[in-house]
Amino acid sequence: MNSIVNLPHDDHSCGWYAALPEPRPARRLTGEQKADYVVIGAGFAGLAAARRLAEHMPQARILLVDAQRVGYGASGRNSGFVIDLPHKFALEHPEPQHKQRLLGLNRAAIDQLQTLIGRHAIDCQWSHAGKYQGAVGERGLAYLDHFEKLLADLGEPYRQVERQELAGVLGTDYYSRAIFTPGCYLMQPAALVRGLGASLPQNVEVLEESPIQRLEKDAGGNWILHGKEGLIRTPKVLLGTSIFTQEFGYLRNRLLPVMTFASWTRPLTDAEMASVGVQADWGLTPADHAGTTVRMTQDRRLIIRNTYKHVPRYGRSINDSIRQKVREDHCAAFHARYPQLAHVPFTHTWGGVYAISRNFTNFFGKLDEGVFATACDNGVGAAWGTISGTLLADKVVGADSQRLDDIQSVTGMPSRNPPEPFLGLGVRSRIRWAAWNSRSEL
Ligand SMILES: Cc1cc2nc3c(=O)[nH]c(=O)nc-3n(C[C@H](O)[C@H](O)[C@H](O)COP(=O)(O)OP(=O)(O)OC[C@H]3O[C@@H](n4cnc5c(N)ncnc54)[C@H](O)[C@@H]3O)c2cc1C
Q: Of the N and C termini of the chain, which has fewer Cβ atoms inside 10 Å?
Protein backbone atom coordinates (compact mmCIF):
# COMPACT_ATOMS: atom_id res chain seq x y z
CA MET A 1 0.00 0.00 0.00
CA ASN A 2 1.34 3.42 -0.93
CA SER A 3 0.25 6.25 1.35
CA ILE A 4 0.47 9.74 -0.06
CA VAL A 5 1.65 12.32 2.39
CA ASN A 6 1.84 15.69 0.66
CA LEU A 7 -0.59 16.96 -1.95
CA PRO A 8 -0.16 19.90 -4.36
CA HIS A 9 -0.68 23.27 -2.70
CA ASP A 10 -0.29 25.94 -5.37
CA ASP A 11 -0.86 29.61 -4.51
CA HIS A 12 -4.00 31.48 -5.60
CA SER A 13 -2.18 34.27 -7.42
CA CYS A 14 -1.20 32.87 -10.81
CA GLY A 15 -1.73 35.65 -13.36
CA TRP A 16 -2.27 33.27 -16.29
CA TYR A 17 -5.07 31.46 -14.50
CA ALA A 18 -6.63 34.70 -13.18
CA ALA A 19 -6.77 36.04 -16.75
CA LEU A 20 -9.10 33.20 -17.81
CA PRO A 21 -12.87 33.21 -17.42
CA GLU A 22 -14.25 31.43 -14.36
CA PRO A 23 -14.27 27.68 -15.15
CA ARG A 24 -17.39 25.54 -15.04
CA PRO A 25 -17.93 23.80 -11.69
CA ALA A 26 -15.56 20.88 -11.24
CA ARG A 27 -16.73 17.30 -11.58
CA ARG A 28 -15.23 15.44 -8.61
CA LEU A 29 -14.46 11.82 -7.86
CA THR A 30 -17.34 10.42 -5.82
CA GLY A 31 -18.59 6.91 -5.08
CA GLU A 32 -17.02 3.73 -6.43
CA GLN A 33 -15.80 3.93 -10.01
CA LYS A 34 -14.27 1.43 -12.40
CA ALA A 35 -12.03 2.43 -15.29
CA ASP A 36 -9.87 0.71 -17.87
CA TYR A 37 -7.17 3.32 -17.37
CA VAL A 38 -6.65 6.10 -14.85
CA VAL A 39 -4.28 8.97 -15.54
CA ILE A 40 -3.35 10.99 -12.45
CA GLY A 41 -2.25 14.58 -13.06
CA ALA A 42 -3.77 16.87 -15.70
CA GLY A 43 -0.66 18.83 -16.69
CA PHE A 44 0.98 18.54 -20.11
CA ALA A 45 2.02 14.95 -19.44
CA GLY A 46 -1.28 13.64 -18.10
CA LEU A 47 -3.39 15.44 -20.71
CA ALA A 48 -1.30 14.03 -23.53
CA ALA A 49 -1.35 10.52 -22.05
CA ALA A 50 -5.14 10.53 -21.62
CA ARG A 51 -5.68 11.82 -25.15
CA ARG A 52 -3.44 9.21 -26.74
CA LEU A 53 -4.94 6.37 -24.70
CA ALA A 54 -8.39 7.43 -25.89
CA GLU A 55 -7.21 7.49 -29.51
CA HIS A 56 -5.86 3.96 -29.17
CA MET A 57 -8.82 2.65 -27.16
CA PRO A 58 -11.98 4.51 -28.17
CA GLN A 59 -14.18 2.03 -26.30
CA ALA A 60 -12.21 2.19 -23.04
CA ARG A 61 -13.28 4.20 -20.00
CA ILE A 62 -10.42 6.58 -19.15
CA LEU A 63 -10.44 8.79 -16.09
CA LEU A 64 -8.08 11.79 -15.85
CA VAL A 65 -7.89 12.89 -12.23
CA ASP A 66 -6.29 16.00 -10.76
CA ALA A 67 -6.06 17.30 -7.22
CA GLN A 68 -6.68 20.85 -8.49
CA ARG A 69 -8.43 22.49 -11.46
CA VAL A 70 -6.98 21.83 -14.92
CA GLY A 71 -4.44 24.59 -15.57
CA TYR A 72 -3.82 25.28 -11.90
CA GLY A 73 -0.65 23.19 -11.52
CA ALA A 74 2.82 23.92 -12.90
CA SER A 75 1.71 23.34 -16.49
CA GLY A 76 -0.60 26.35 -16.23
CA ARG A 77 1.78 28.60 -14.32
CA ASN A 78 5.04 28.44 -16.29
CA SER A 79 6.57 31.11 -18.53
CA GLY A 80 4.96 29.72 -21.66
CA PHE A 81 8.05 28.80 -23.71
CA VAL A 82 7.59 25.61 -25.73
CA ILE A 83 11.24 24.95 -26.39
CA ASP A 84 12.54 22.69 -29.13
CA LEU A 85 16.19 22.75 -28.04
CA PRO A 86 17.22 20.53 -25.16
CA HIS A 87 18.43 22.41 -22.09
CA LYS A 88 22.10 23.15 -21.57
CA PHE A 89 23.05 19.94 -19.77
CA ALA A 90 21.46 17.79 -22.45
CA LEU A 91 23.10 19.89 -25.16
CA GLU A 92 26.43 19.01 -23.59
CA HIS A 93 25.76 15.30 -23.98
CA PRO A 94 28.73 13.65 -25.76
CA GLU A 95 26.58 11.70 -28.27
CA PRO A 96 25.22 13.78 -31.18
CA GLN A 97 22.51 11.17 -31.76
CA HIS A 98 21.21 11.63 -28.21
CA LYS A 99 20.76 15.35 -28.85
CA GLN A 100 19.10 14.77 -32.22
CA ARG A 101 16.63 12.41 -30.60
CA LEU A 102 15.76 15.00 -27.95
CA LEU A 103 15.30 17.62 -30.63
CA GLY A 104 13.09 15.30 -32.66
CA LEU A 105 10.95 14.52 -29.61
CA ASN A 106 10.52 18.17 -28.64
CA ARG A 107 9.64 19.12 -32.21
CA ALA A 108 7.10 16.30 -32.41
CA ALA A 109 5.51 17.76 -29.27
CA ILE A 110 5.37 21.22 -30.83
CA ASP A 111 3.75 19.82 -33.99
CA GLN A 112 1.25 17.95 -31.87
CA LEU A 113 0.32 21.04 -29.83
CA GLN A 114 0.09 23.17 -32.95
CA THR A 115 -2.28 20.67 -34.59
CA LEU A 116 -4.52 20.48 -31.51
CA ILE A 117 -4.59 24.26 -31.06
CA GLY A 118 -5.65 24.65 -34.70
CA ARG A 119 -8.15 21.77 -34.68
CA HIS A 120 -9.90 22.87 -31.48
CA ALA A 121 -9.43 26.64 -31.93
CA ILE A 122 -7.68 26.92 -28.55
CA ASP A 123 -7.23 30.62 -27.84
CA CYS A 124 -3.86 30.67 -26.05
CA GLN A 125 -1.59 33.31 -27.64
CA TRP A 126 0.19 30.53 -29.56
CA SER A 127 2.98 32.13 -31.50
CA HIS A 128 6.02 31.03 -33.48
CA ALA A 129 8.06 33.80 -31.89
CA GLY A 130 11.42 32.03 -31.46
CA LYS A 131 13.49 32.78 -28.38
CA TYR A 132 16.26 35.13 -27.33
CA GLN A 133 18.92 33.84 -25.00
CA GLY A 134 20.30 37.02 -23.44
CA ALA A 135 23.54 37.99 -21.70
CA VAL A 136 24.04 41.06 -19.53
CA GLY A 137 27.61 40.88 -18.21
CA GLU A 138 30.84 38.95 -18.80
CA ARG A 139 29.50 35.82 -17.15
CA GLY A 140 26.42 35.77 -19.39
CA LEU A 141 28.55 36.42 -22.47
CA ALA A 142 30.78 33.46 -21.65
CA TYR A 143 27.69 31.24 -21.36
CA LEU A 144 26.43 32.63 -24.66
CA ASP A 145 29.71 31.81 -26.43
CA HIS A 146 29.46 28.27 -25.12
CA PHE A 147 25.81 28.00 -26.21
CA GLU A 148 26.74 29.22 -29.68
CA LYS A 149 29.37 26.52 -29.97
CA LEU A 150 26.90 23.83 -28.89
CA LEU A 151 24.39 25.05 -31.49
CA ALA A 152 27.02 25.10 -34.21
CA ASP A 153 28.10 21.53 -33.30
CA LEU A 154 24.49 20.46 -33.54
CA GLY A 155 24.00 22.20 -36.88
CA GLU A 156 21.06 24.21 -35.51
CA PRO A 157 20.20 27.63 -36.94
CA TYR A 158 20.75 30.70 -34.76
CA ARG A 159 21.48 34.39 -35.09
CA GLN A 160 23.54 36.75 -32.93
CA VAL A 161 21.63 39.85 -31.94
CA GLU A 162 23.63 42.83 -30.67
CA ARG A 163 22.55 45.33 -28.02
CA GLN A 164 21.02 47.94 -30.32
CA GLU A 165 18.92 45.58 -32.40
CA LEU A 166 17.84 43.79 -29.25
CA ALA A 167 16.75 47.08 -27.67
CA GLY A 168 14.50 47.68 -30.67
CA VAL A 169 12.50 44.58 -29.73
CA LEU A 170 12.80 44.43 -25.95
CA GLY A 171 12.64 48.17 -25.28
CA THR A 172 15.70 47.99 -23.04
CA ASP A 173 19.43 48.20 -23.70
CA TYR A 174 20.14 46.15 -20.57
CA TYR A 175 21.41 43.16 -22.56
CA SER A 176 24.83 43.16 -24.24
CA ARG A 177 23.99 40.43 -26.70
CA ALA A 178 21.60 37.58 -27.38
CA ILE A 179 21.35 34.50 -29.53
CA PHE A 180 18.06 34.09 -31.32
CA THR A 181 16.89 30.55 -32.07
CA PRO A 182 13.82 30.25 -34.26
CA GLY A 183 12.28 26.95 -33.13
CA CYS A 184 10.60 28.05 -29.87
CA TYR A 185 6.88 28.80 -29.57
CA LEU A 186 5.20 30.98 -26.97
CA MET A 187 1.78 30.52 -25.41
CA GLN A 188 -0.53 31.37 -22.50
CA PRO A 189 -0.02 28.20 -20.46
CA ALA A 190 -3.23 28.16 -18.40
CA ALA A 191 -5.29 28.84 -21.53
CA LEU A 192 -3.51 26.12 -23.48
CA VAL A 193 -3.83 23.55 -20.71
CA ARG A 194 -7.49 24.35 -20.13
CA GLY A 195 -8.12 24.15 -23.88
CA LEU A 196 -6.40 20.77 -24.06
CA GLY A 197 -8.52 19.54 -21.15
CA ALA A 198 -11.73 20.78 -22.75
CA SER A 199 -11.03 19.12 -26.09
CA LEU A 200 -10.25 15.57 -24.94
CA PRO A 201 -11.93 12.67 -26.72
CA GLN A 202 -15.35 11.71 -25.33
CA ASN A 203 -14.19 8.59 -23.56
CA VAL A 204 -11.92 10.62 -21.27
CA GLU A 205 -13.72 11.86 -18.16
CA VAL A 206 -11.95 14.63 -16.27
CA LEU A 207 -12.28 14.64 -12.49
CA GLU A 208 -10.92 17.79 -10.83
CA GLU A 209 -10.40 18.83 -7.20
CA SER A 210 -10.01 15.11 -6.54
CA PRO A 211 -6.68 14.40 -4.88
CA ILE A 212 -5.73 10.74 -4.88
CA GLN A 213 -4.62 10.08 -1.36
CA ARG A 214 -3.61 6.46 -1.52
CA LEU A 215 -2.88 3.64 -3.98
CA GLU A 216 -3.64 0.09 -2.95
CA LYS A 217 -3.67 -3.22 -4.76
CA ASP A 218 -6.63 -5.55 -4.34
CA ALA A 219 -6.51 -9.37 -4.28
CA GLY A 220 -7.35 -9.50 -8.00
CA GLY A 221 -4.33 -7.38 -8.94
CA ASN A 222 -6.34 -4.22 -9.65
CA TRP A 223 -5.31 -0.87 -8.27
CA ILE A 224 -7.64 1.00 -5.95
CA LEU A 225 -7.15 4.77 -6.00
CA HIS A 226 -8.56 6.37 -2.91
CA GLY A 227 -9.92 9.92 -3.08
CA LYS A 228 -11.61 11.98 -0.38
CA GLU A 229 -15.14 11.14 -1.45
CA GLY A 230 -14.70 8.11 -3.65
CA LEU A 231 -12.43 5.48 -5.13
CA ILE A 232 -11.52 4.03 -8.51
CA ARG A 233 -10.63 0.45 -9.38
CA THR A 234 -8.45 0.02 -12.43
CA PRO A 235 -5.84 -2.38 -13.82
CA LYS A 236 -3.67 0.44 -15.23
CA VAL A 237 -2.47 3.69 -13.68
CA LEU A 238 -0.46 6.32 -15.54
CA LEU A 239 1.22 8.94 -13.37
CA GLY A 240 1.62 12.41 -14.89
CA THR A 241 2.29 13.80 -11.47
CA SER A 242 5.80 15.22 -11.96
CA ILE A 243 7.46 15.77 -8.56
CA PHE A 244 4.43 14.33 -6.72
CA THR A 245 5.24 10.90 -8.13
CA GLN A 246 7.44 10.42 -5.07
CA GLU A 247 4.40 10.86 -2.82
CA PHE A 248 3.00 7.62 -4.28
CA GLY A 249 6.12 5.85 -3.07
CA TYR A 250 7.94 5.82 -6.43
CA LEU A 251 11.29 7.41 -7.37
CA ARG A 252 11.71 8.22 -3.70
CA ASN A 253 14.98 10.06 -2.93
CA ARG A 254 15.63 10.55 -6.64
CA LEU A 255 13.71 13.75 -7.43
CA LEU A 256 14.36 17.27 -6.16
CA PRO A 257 11.35 19.54 -5.64
CA VAL A 258 12.20 23.02 -6.89
CA MET A 259 10.05 26.10 -7.07
CA THR A 260 10.54 29.10 -9.30
CA PHE A 261 8.47 32.29 -9.42
CA ALA A 262 7.06 34.83 -11.83
CA SER A 263 5.42 38.27 -11.64
CA TRP A 264 3.63 40.21 -14.33
CA THR A 265 2.45 43.74 -14.88
CA ARG A 266 -0.93 44.92 -16.02
CA PRO A 267 -1.11 45.35 -19.83
CA LEU A 268 1.04 48.33 -20.86
CA THR A 269 -0.73 51.29 -22.46
CA ASP A 270 0.06 52.52 -26.00
CA ALA A 271 1.97 55.43 -24.43
CA GLU A 272 4.02 53.13 -22.20
CA MET A 273 4.86 50.83 -25.12
CA ALA A 274 5.96 53.84 -27.15
CA SER A 275 7.91 55.42 -24.28
CA VAL A 276 10.35 52.48 -24.15
CA GLY A 277 9.97 51.36 -27.76
CA VAL A 278 9.04 47.80 -26.83
CA GLN A 279 7.32 45.31 -29.14
CA ALA A 280 4.71 42.74 -28.06
CA ASP A 281 5.08 38.94 -28.11
CA TRP A 282 8.68 37.92 -27.46
CA GLY A 283 10.51 35.84 -24.88
CA LEU A 284 14.05 35.92 -23.50
CA THR A 285 15.66 33.29 -21.31
CA PRO A 286 18.93 33.98 -19.49
CA ALA A 287 22.22 32.81 -20.98
CA ASP A 288 23.19 31.80 -17.45
CA HIS A 289 20.32 29.60 -16.29
CA ALA A 290 20.32 31.15 -12.80
CA GLY A 291 19.47 34.56 -14.32
CA THR A 292 16.13 36.17 -15.19
CA THR A 293 13.59 35.19 -17.85
CA VAL A 294 11.67 38.11 -19.37
CA ARG A 295 8.61 37.90 -21.59
CA MET A 296 6.20 40.29 -23.21
CA THR A 297 2.78 38.73 -23.85
CA GLN A 298 0.55 39.44 -26.82
CA ASP A 299 -1.66 41.49 -24.49
CA ARG A 300 1.42 43.54 -23.52
CA ARG A 301 2.16 42.38 -20.01
CA LEU A 302 5.81 42.18 -19.03
CA ILE A 303 6.74 39.06 -17.07
CA ILE A 304 9.79 38.58 -14.89
CA ARG A 305 10.80 35.09 -13.72
CA ASN A 306 13.70 34.29 -11.43
CA THR A 307 14.59 32.78 -8.03
CA TYR A 308 14.72 29.11 -7.17
CA LYS A 309 13.81 27.50 -3.85
CA HIS A 310 14.16 23.96 -2.60
CA VAL A 311 10.62 23.07 -1.46
CA PRO A 312 10.45 19.71 0.35
CA ARG A 313 6.82 20.49 1.31
CA TYR A 314 6.01 21.92 -2.13
CA GLY A 315 3.77 25.03 -1.93
CA ARG A 316 3.64 24.71 1.84
CA SER A 317 7.37 25.45 2.04
CA ILE A 318 6.66 29.05 0.96
CA ASN A 319 5.35 31.66 3.37
CA ASP A 320 4.27 35.28 2.92
CA SER A 321 7.66 36.75 3.76
CA ILE A 322 9.39 34.58 1.13
CA ARG A 323 6.71 35.61 -1.39
CA GLN A 324 7.24 39.27 -0.52
CA LYS A 325 11.03 38.97 -0.94
CA VAL A 326 10.56 37.24 -4.31
CA ARG A 327 8.28 40.05 -5.46
CA GLU A 328 10.84 42.66 -4.37
CA ASP A 329 13.53 40.82 -6.33
CA HIS A 330 11.25 40.75 -9.36
CA CYS A 331 10.64 44.50 -8.97
CA ALA A 332 14.40 45.10 -8.83
CA ALA A 333 14.96 43.08 -12.02
CA PHE A 334 12.08 44.90 -13.73
CA HIS A 335 13.25 48.39 -12.71
CA ALA A 336 16.84 47.64 -13.76
CA ARG A 337 15.58 46.80 -17.25
CA TYR A 338 12.72 49.29 -17.53
CA PRO A 339 13.43 52.31 -15.28
CA GLN A 340 10.93 54.40 -17.31
CA LEU A 341 8.19 51.92 -16.35
CA ALA A 342 8.90 51.95 -12.61
CA HIS A 343 5.36 53.28 -11.99
CA VAL A 344 3.80 50.18 -13.60
CA PRO A 345 2.81 47.76 -10.83
CA PHE A 346 2.91 43.99 -10.80
CA THR A 347 -0.62 42.65 -10.52
CA HIS A 348 0.30 39.02 -9.78
CA THR A 349 3.23 37.07 -8.35
CA TRP A 350 3.14 33.28 -8.29
CA GLY A 351 5.26 30.18 -7.99
CA GLY A 352 5.17 26.64 -9.30
CA VAL A 353 6.83 23.37 -8.37
CA TYR A 354 8.64 21.00 -10.67
CA ALA A 355 11.15 18.18 -10.47
CA ILE A 356 14.81 18.08 -11.28
CA SER A 357 17.26 15.25 -10.78
CA ARG A 358 20.92 15.41 -9.91
CA ASN A 359 21.93 13.66 -13.13
CA PHE A 360 19.38 15.65 -15.20
CA THR A 361 17.78 12.41 -16.30
CA ASN A 362 14.07 12.03 -17.07
CA PHE A 363 12.18 8.96 -15.93
CA PHE A 364 9.89 7.27 -18.47
CA GLY A 365 8.30 3.85 -18.23
CA LYS A 366 7.08 1.19 -15.84
CA LEU A 367 7.31 1.67 -12.07
CA ASP A 368 5.27 -1.25 -10.83
CA GLU A 369 2.88 -3.92 -12.16
CA GLY A 370 0.22 -1.79 -13.91
CA VAL A 371 1.82 1.55 -12.93
CA PHE A 372 3.62 3.74 -15.47
CA ALA A 373 5.01 7.26 -15.26
CA THR A 374 6.79 10.07 -16.96
CA ALA A 375 8.45 12.29 -14.39
CA CYS A 376 11.24 14.76 -13.90
CA ASP A 377 11.46 16.98 -16.95
CA ASN A 378 14.03 19.24 -15.28
CA GLY A 379 11.88 22.32 -15.75
CA VAL A 380 11.17 22.27 -19.48
CA GLY A 381 7.97 20.28 -19.38
CA ALA A 382 5.71 21.96 -21.93
CA ALA A 383 7.24 20.09 -24.85
CA TRP A 384 8.66 17.19 -22.86
CA GLY A 385 5.46 16.53 -20.88
CA THR A 386 3.46 16.53 -24.11
CA ILE A 387 5.62 14.05 -25.98
CA SER A 388 6.47 11.85 -23.00
CA GLY A 389 2.80 11.60 -21.97
CA THR A 390 1.84 10.67 -25.54
CA LEU A 391 4.52 8.01 -25.82
CA LEU A 392 3.77 6.65 -22.36
CA ALA A 393 0.26 5.85 -23.58
CA ASP A 394 1.80 4.14 -26.64
CA LYS A 395 3.99 2.06 -24.35
CA VAL A 396 1.08 1.06 -22.11
CA VAL A 397 -1.01 -0.19 -25.04
CA GLY A 398 2.00 -1.80 -26.76
CA ALA A 399 2.15 0.49 -29.81
CA ASP A 400 5.77 0.46 -30.98
CA SER A 401 7.29 3.34 -32.93
CA GLN A 402 10.63 4.96 -33.68
CA ARG A 403 9.71 7.82 -31.30
CA LEU A 404 9.05 5.33 -28.50
CA ASP A 405 12.48 3.80 -29.10
CA ASP A 406 13.96 7.31 -29.09
CA ILE A 407 12.42 8.34 -25.78
CA GLN A 408 13.43 5.05 -24.16
CA SER A 409 17.00 5.57 -25.27
CA VAL A 410 17.29 9.15 -23.92
CA THR A 411 15.62 8.55 -20.54
CA GLY A 412 16.80 6.60 -17.52
CA MET A 413 16.86 6.56 -13.78
CA PRO A 414 17.30 9.85 -11.89
CA SER A 415 20.26 9.42 -9.56
CA ARG A 416 19.84 8.91 -5.84
CA ASN A 417 19.92 11.95 -3.53
CA PRO A 418 22.06 12.08 -0.41
CA PRO A 419 20.08 11.70 2.82
CA GLU A 420 18.68 14.65 4.78
CA PRO A 421 19.88 16.96 6.25
CA PHE A 422 22.77 16.86 3.72
CA LEU A 423 20.41 17.05 0.74
CA GLY A 424 18.59 20.21 1.91
CA LEU A 425 21.83 21.88 2.97
CA GLY A 426 23.51 21.00 -0.31
CA VAL A 427 20.64 22.12 -2.55
CA ARG A 428 20.08 25.38 -0.66
CA SER A 429 23.77 26.30 -0.73
CA ARG A 430 24.00 25.40 -4.42
CA ILE A 431 21.02 27.64 -5.25
CA ARG A 432 22.53 30.50 -3.19
CA TRP A 433 25.94 30.02 -4.81
CA ALA A 434 24.41 30.05 -8.31
CA ALA A 435 22.37 33.19 -7.51
CA TRP A 436 25.49 34.96 -6.17
CA ASN A 437 27.61 34.01 -9.16
CA SER A 438 24.89 35.03 -11.56
CA ARG A 439 24.01 38.32 -9.91
CA SER A 440 25.05 40.27 -13.01
CA GLU A 441 22.46 38.29 -15.01
CA LEU A 442 19.59 38.68 -12.53
C1 LIG B 1 7.34 29.81 -13.00
C2 LIG B 1 7.66 28.64 -13.89
C3 LIG B 1 8.14 28.85 -15.18
C4 LIG B 1 8.38 27.78 -16.03
N5 LIG B 1 8.65 28.03 -17.34
C6 LIG B 1 8.65 27.01 -18.22
C7 LIG B 1 8.67 27.27 -19.62
O8 LIG B 1 8.67 28.43 -20.05
N9 LIG B 1 8.69 26.21 -20.47
C10 LIG B 1 8.63 24.91 -20.02
O11 LIG B 1 8.67 23.98 -20.83
N12 LIG B 1 8.57 24.64 -18.70
C13 LIG B 1 8.54 25.65 -17.79
N14 LIG B 1 8.39 25.38 -16.45
C15 LIG B 1 8.30 23.98 -16.02
C16 LIG B 1 6.95 23.35 -16.41
O17 LIG B 1 5.88 24.10 -15.91
C18 LIG B 1 6.87 21.92 -15.90
O19 LIG B 1 8.02 21.26 -16.33
C20 LIG B 1 5.63 21.21 -16.47
O21 LIG B 1 4.47 21.89 -16.10
C22 LIG B 1 5.55 19.76 -15.99
O23 LIG B 1 4.38 19.21 -16.55
P24 LIG B 1 3.77 17.86 -15.99
O25 LIG B 1 2.51 17.61 -16.72
O26 LIG B 1 4.80 16.80 -16.00
O27 LIG B 1 3.49 18.15 -14.44
P28 LIG B 1 2.53 19.23 -13.69
O29 LIG B 1 2.15 20.35 -14.57
O30 LIG B 1 3.21 19.53 -12.40
O31 LIG B 1 1.24 18.36 -13.43
C32 LIG B 1 1.14 17.45 -12.38
C33 LIG B 1 -0.30 17.45 -11.93
O34 LIG B 1 -0.47 16.40 -10.99
C35 LIG B 1 -1.44 16.81 -10.06
N36 LIG B 1 -1.28 15.97 -8.86
C37 LIG B 1 -0.19 15.83 -8.09
N38 LIG B 1 -0.44 14.98 -7.07
C39 LIG B 1 -1.72 14.55 -7.23
C40 LIG B 1 -2.55 13.67 -6.50
N41 LIG B 1 -2.15 13.04 -5.38
N42 LIG B 1 -3.82 13.46 -6.96
C43 LIG B 1 -4.27 14.07 -8.08
N44 LIG B 1 -3.51 14.93 -8.80
C45 LIG B 1 -2.26 15.16 -8.37
C46 LIG B 1 -1.11 18.28 -9.82
O47 LIG B 1 -2.21 19.00 -9.31
C48 LIG B 1 -0.71 18.74 -11.23
O49 LIG B 1 -1.77 19.35 -11.94
C50 LIG B 1 8.21 26.44 -15.57
C51 LIG B 1 7.77 26.21 -14.24
C52 LIG B 1 7.49 27.29 -13.43
C53 LIG B 1 6.98 27.01 -12.05
A: N
